[in-house]
Amino acid sequence: MAISKKALVERICAKTFKSSLTCSIFGFTFLFILYLLDWSRIARFPPTKSLPGLDVERAWNDLKFISLLPHPYNSKQNEVVRDYLLDELRPLEESNQPYVTVIDDLYTNITFELDNKSDLVYFEGNNILIHFQGKNRQRLPILLSAHYDSVSTGKGTTDDGMGVAATLELCRYYAKHQPERDLIVNFNNAEEDYLYGARAFAAHELSKNVTAFVNLEGAGSGGKAMLFRSSNHYVTKAYFRKNKYPLASILGSDFFKRRIIRSETDYIVYENMHNGTAGLDIAFYENRNIYHTAKDDLSHVMPKSLRHMMYSAFRSVNNLLDEPRKDLTKFSKPTFFLLFGKYWQFKYPLYQMTSVVLVVVCPIILLSILLRFPSLYTQIKKKRYMACFLLSCVFVFVFDAGTVLFLTWYNPYLINAHSGLVSALFYLTNLIALAFSFRTAATHSKLSSEDLSCIEIVLIWYVQMLWYAVFFISVVLSLHYELSSTYWVTLSYLSTVCCCILTLIRIHYFVDNVEDMNFTREERSLLGVPSSNQSQYGSVPQQPLIHRPSNLSTKKAHAKLKDNIWSVLYFIFIVPLPLFLCYDILNEVILPAGSQTLTDAPFSNKLYKLTIIIAFFSMVNSGPFIFRALSKKSTAVLTMLWITLLVQALFLDPFDETHPLKLATFQTYNLNNGNHTFYVKNITPFTDQILQFNPYYTANGGQCDDTYCSFESVKPSFEVNNPIVYELNQGKHQVDLTIRAESKWCTVNFNESVFVEDLNENRISKVYKSIRMGQREFLKPYTLNLTITEPTATEITCSYDDITDGTIPAYENFLQHLPAWSVGTKASTGLLKVSTSFTMT
């Protein structure tokens, strides 16, 4: 006999939701399917066919040449890379395309003072500019930028070889396809040295009318390129439009704004030039512990990473070029986020206004509706229930805090190599704590097992109150600091509001009449069933929270089934949204970008705290269900798993060959007394352990303080006897100082402020205490005309960054004695700092 659709659905529901176990299986399966959909998006890279007109293989060959050797601004290899780019670009101009102009910018010099007003900077730029004239000259130009210098200690394959290779291939494309509006491409030099290449472009004539820009960077090594900063929602749309492989996070913008990320990119220069320019900052961000090291090379990246950078740059630039609007700067800030595999974006003022409205309106609406359900309101305001919930939260907090403190006390740098393990451990920590504490809360609420759905509803409302407190704080912070990254709190709170409304719908529309009054006194109070001697609220009969069928013995299974179905509906409304929002934030942004940065500054467990807090908020909405979904046996098994993970976490090595310890170094050499000292950042206890294998450290009595370990190592080697030559022509209060060095970077420091009249024939006429100078050529003299009124102690320091010419053998010696689980990097501009001192009278 044929079964009707309704009967079939009822039969499926009866099988699927007949017990807490089957409901749990359904809920976890639902989450797993959502995870697979999200994971499939993360794992996808653009194929070659998604880049029509672009030659990925040719770009890869460009990358091979660019990243052959380290090529910092202050090196001869930098000039080799520069010549290569010019050789590749000049044929584009010579191909009889009248709209293509290649500019070898050897003329832009900039002079400016730093924020302290006592330091002067002089810099000679040598950027390479390409100007593609657009078909519509009325629209303002777009800028595409990448820097072709690397750090002294790395080959710069990701930072920023991939950006340069992608930009070079885009130049070839637009040489064949004239853009709609002007496109200016800037291959800038000296980004790694205080962003001076971008500053030089900002002083160039072509920069004056730029309305939007795309900056390609490498703040990590390999993986995908992420949009982590955007100036306004209009240029953000250009990134997402027709982009099938986006990767973006608004957290990056807020982290830069709040100085959580202390380094900077050319983005900050371009955005502030000429009263504001709108732009996109697209960068690699993973594998930070090989960033700026010798492992930033071709062997640690894959062509698919280059394809993703090329794809993101091409889509963004092409969409900006096709924009019909003349000016793209006059738009509001963006807010964008990932949700279930799709990116959503809003204008920040709209998001801000919506948040303010919600923080005021939502509690008013919920409270006004709740008062129409006096029995539920009575249960929610019971001190016993509230105390159980608060104690549960306190227990979870203490358990989380204890786990973090114990882990960071015993193995503080574990997250460097095992961020996945730490994430799993913290999620499991919260799962166990929530299961134990909420089961205890339900037990002490004196509910029988058949009434667990009642406490489930009460707990849902308590979770909503918790989220409201967090939401209120986030709105205040968002308004005060203009933060967009609080979106996950807003959406998570809305999910709890929707679930609370769903509980009211159930109570109001889907209940049976209570006919059987054979309940205990406790159950009468819970269910809202008045006894014969029980007073009611005013003249209105008390509305039962959950009505029970008349014949409990025959309809118990049916009631259980309905309770389970409603629990699953609550689960779907309240759990997945915060779970996946927090998961994406934590495992796609925070841990990949931050797990390998603990050695960049004095140790702090803030990252561990942030990780476990986000894990808590991703799991807390499962609290009302978890004590039903997980039996005591299941909780015991999870506890054993948690202990296993914790023990493993305590004894795993925090550094390995894939995730090495990055040690920042530099060397000083005083020409006056011949002293030369090599400094290595002190990461206790690892630095001292490593240096014990260095013969110079052990033989010369190396010492460590809180910041650095220092020792006398191999003496620097120069082609000339004196690497810094200076000449003084002194008159009455007038001093002409000329400096020559085998370096493009020199700094002059005075013990007292002096009047600087001219610097390399540039009129200054102002008082300064320090002068930092960078120029295009080696051994080219610096000339300073100074006025002094008293004897002035002067120190000249010139920086050296070329590790390929034998000038800095101490660094080579340091690398030779490193174990496989550690790497070297520069501490700052100037891997070797050579100084000489004298007094001007």
From TrEMBL:
Its main location: membrane. May be involved in vacuolar sorting and osmoregulation. It holds the Pfam family Peptidase_M28. Belongs to the peptidase M28 family. GO terms for biological process: proteolysis. It comes from Schizosaccharomyces octosporus (strain yFS286) (Fission yeast). Its cofactor is Zn(2+). GO terms for molecular function: aminopeptidase activity; metal ion binding; metalloexopeptidase activity. Keywords: Aminopeptidase, Glycoprotein, Hydrolase, Membrane, Metal-binding, Metalloprotease, Protease, Transmembrane, Transmembrane helix, Vacuole, Zinc. It comes from the Eukaryota. It is an enzyme of class 3 (hydrolase). The chain crosses the membrane at residues 21-37, 350-373, 385-409, 415-438, 459-481, 487-511, 565-586, 606-627, 634-652. It is found in: Vacuole membrane. Its EC number is 3.4.-.-. This is Peptide hydrolase. GO terms for cellular component: vacuolar membrane. The lineage of its organism: Eukaryota, Fungi, Dikarya, Ascomycota, Taphrinomycotina. Residues 127-311 form the Peptidase M28 domain. It is a multi-pass membrane protein.
